[in-house]
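Dear support,

I submitted the protein below through the web form. The confirmation email said the job was done, but the results page showed an empty box. After a refresh the structure appeared. I'm attaching both so you can tell me whether what I see now is the final result or a partial one.
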Amino acid sequence: MRTQVGIIGAGPAGLMLARLLQLQGIDSIIIENRSRDYIENRIRAGLIEDWAADMLTEIGLGARLNREGLVHHGIKLGINGSLHHIDFKTLVDKRVTIYGQQEVVKDMVAQRLESGAPLLFEVSDASVHDIAGRPKIRFTHDGQAKEIDCDFIGGCDGFHGICRPSIPDGVLSVFEREYPFGWLGILAAAPPPDEELIYSYHDRGFALFTMRSATLARSYLQCAHDEDIANWSDARIWDELNRRMGGMRPLAEGEILQKSVTPMRSFVVEPMQYGRLFLTGDAAHIVPPTGAKGMNLAFADVLVLSRAMTAFYRSGDDALLEAYSATCLRRIWKAQRFSWWMTQMMHLFPDDNPFDRRRRLAELDYVTSSEAAAKSLAENYVGLPMDGR
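What the results page shows now:
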């Protein structure tokens, strides 16, 4: 098999990279170790930044997004039962859109398959070879050994994928932080408590009240990073959500369809490239979900990479490819800073003392009473501009 770009991973990064390249006449093959049903139904992030929603529309993926997505022009911050509005429209004249990652993936998979471009599910034994020279991807599909000969490899296979470990020892520097708490998340058949997201700081711990639709509530509770979900009955979850809502909004209690505990971490590798292998999305960086940056950073990575590959194929100029990692990392570290800031402001830490709690309350008071502070939050939350957009 021969193509220009071999893409490993059919998540948002891999599918978006393939689409952006396709629009520039650049061929690619995507391989994915999971089934189509699995990647289209795993519940992940659901917030799309302003520029990313515009991009999805521009590349032909906006029909269902614009019909079903929930456009938000702000968020609300709760402080021990007191609710404060951060108005994106007034502060920065931008919006965010709630539209589940699995829905974005469904749209991109359907578009890819309709175009007839190669997308192979349920591959196994994938490996990459000669990434510093003439890259090859080897794998098994339908019981047969396969090989893709390509010019470049897009490593879009997530944190646990094969691409990052394929880079030789000593090349990558790892920067990470483990957080001493996680999020207990639920998906419930119930209307959300508000038309916008509510980030609630409470003396019992953080809670987030969001949604996937007008009838599906997505809520989170701060918990221990190693919390056993078996200890949380539905009744206990609803009781704790109500406590941390603090009476700010009535909370409808419906059937809990899914529940799980997710540890939280920050992670970055530098550089994000080696030879002709380019890491994107979760293969290169992880952010705490507090800042809602995960899928948006993946989109930003592949937009930068697609522009660099386009320049290479049009003129032979590899300057943008050489600069790929440095270009992406400027945005990534700003997103890491914002995600860390939101996380430390909204969560309780096990080693907090009375000073820490008073300082945190003062910070929340400042953010909700200062237009300059609120504007900074809004600017980062809706997404910093992408160069050239």
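Response: this is the final, complete result; the empty box was a page-load delay. The domain at 176-264 is CATH 3.30.9.10 (D-Amino Acid Oxidase; Chain A, domain 2).
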